[in-house]
Amino acid sequence: MSEEKKERSLTKRKTDAGFVSNLVNQIRLVLRLMSDSRVSFLLKLLPLGSLAYLIVPDLVPFIIDDALVLGLGTYMFIELCPDDVVEEHKKALWEKENEGPDKVIDAEFFQSSEDE
């Protein structure tokens, strides 16, 4: 696997926000890629097919196989999308996520003579 693909991995982020946050970001990324005209129509069938498999009852009574197919389908969809399109959407999503009141502000502290 190339270095570029390793960096694109959804589980390898600078700040690991947790499983639920990563799952929400992955769903948002898939939705954005599905609506992007630069992504092939045939490629868009992959997550749709995975979702259809989840909805249609199958012979195996366990839910783990459905979750596995859905997860694998979305993972393959993101990996097969054009690199520049995926990076553009990831950057937009994670910049939006980092906006807000809990941002770190870097500043210098000094004590004035009035405080002494």
What does this structure look like?
With 116 residues, the protein is mostly helical. It has one domain. It has helices at residues 3-8, 19-35, 41-55, 64-80, 83-98. The mean pLDDT is 76.
Layout of helices and strands:
Elements: H1 3-8, H2 19-35, H3 41-55, H4 64-80, H5 83-98
Helix pairs in contact: 2-5, 3-4
Summarize the structure.
With 116 residues, the protein is mainly α.
Q: How would you sum up the major sheet?
A: none
> How far apart, in Å, are the first and last alpha carbons?
60 Å
Helix percentage range = 55-70%
Cα radius of gyration in angstroms: 20 Å
Mean pLDDT score: 76
Order of helices and strands: HHHHH
Please give the oligomerization state of what you see: single chain
Class by alpha and beta content:
mainly alpha
The number of helical runs is 5
